[in-house]
Design a protein that fits this description.
single chain; 289 residues; alpha+beta; YojJ-like (1; 2 domains; DNA_integrity_scan_DisA_N; ATP-binding; cell membrane
Length: 289
């Protein structure tokens, strides 16, 4: 028994002592990694990160199979890729540094408020969107209604004007009414609320798109190519209603078809707290009344 305890003691002697400073460093590094992951999730970098993980998995597979040419190419392209990322995400990096300078870190760290949206939108919200789309279609009022899902659209929201109103057909119709201050651009819907209007969407550069489609439809396709959102489009020329999803534009013939298409993608409430990273986004949301 004494010999056994002596062995255990000799093993423990090799374990470095953890000091208070070590714990403090672990806390700081964990917080920084958490904030970086939050920033990645809330920007276009989240989509890029998923692509990067696929490349990493491919690289590991090539290493295991000893595909030396492929691993050599990836190793030498890594530095160029890093420089390219800094250039591509220069606006996001600058915005992240500006936000870091304006934060109260202690308050943010111990905040227990809900940090995600969207909570799942309800059947009532779906019905209001469908009703508004077809009411506007009857009078040929153009509209762009973007329904946020998993990909946060905060960057798009910043290009518009904050609304923060419960989704109703009357509100949507009034926003897109001709010659009103908010009619130009898109509205963003998160959960059961209209968060912003007059938002600018990225235009699709897909050359196979029909020449008959105007800027509104290209914008709907553009946002569907860069996020998992659903975008309802009402044509100002024909009054037709279409739905953009995953880079595809589908014409919807009737209200029930549109209602089913949106309802199938309906999310669930995932309210959390600050420390639920993948089920919580770095943004406070008000719940629908």
């Amino acid at each position: 028994m004494t010999e056994f305890l002596g062995r255990i003691y000799s093993w423990l002697a090799f374990i470095p002592k953890i000091t208070l400073g070590n714990l403090f460093e672990i806390l700081i590094i964990s917080f920084l990694i958490y904030e970086i992951l939050i920033w990645v999730q809330n920007t276009r970098a989240w989509v890029l990160l998923k692509g990067g993980l696929m490349i990493l998995a491919f690289y590991l597979g090539a290493s295991l199979l000893r595909l030396n040419t492929i691993t050599w190419m990836i190793n030498h392209m890594g530095q160029l890729a890093l420089i390219a990322l800094l250039i591509i995400f220069q606006p996001e990096l600058r915005k992240a540094l500006e936000q870091l300078g304006s934060k109260n870190i202690i308050t943010e760290l111990f905040s227990s408020e809900d940090v995600r949206g969207p909570e799942g939108y309800t059947d009532k919200t779906v019905n209001e969107i469908v009703r508004a789309a077809y009411e506007m279609g009857k009078v040929k009022t153009g509209a762009l209604i973007v329904i946020e899902r998993e990909t946060l659209l905060s960057e798009i929201e910043r290009t518009g004007i904050e609304v923060d109103g419960i989704v109703t057909s009357q509100l949507l119709i009034n926003i897109f009414e001709h010659n009103t201050p908010l009619h130009d651009g898109a509205v963003i819907i998160r959960g059961n609320r209209v968060t912003a209007a007059t938002c600018y969407l990225p235009l699709s550069d897909n050359l196979s798109i029909s020449k008959d489609l105007g800027t509104r439809h290209r914008a709907a396709l553009g946002i569907s190519e860069t996020s998992d959102s659903l975008t309802v489009v009402v044509s100002e020329e024909t009054g037709r209603v279409s739905l953009a999803r995953d880079g595809q534009l589908t014409r919807i013939s009737d209200q029930e078809t549109l209602r089913q298409a949106i309802s199938v993608e309906k999310g669930e409430d995932t309210g959390a707290g600050r420390f639920r990273l993948w089920k919580g986004r770095h943004k406070n949301e008000r719940k629908a009344e």
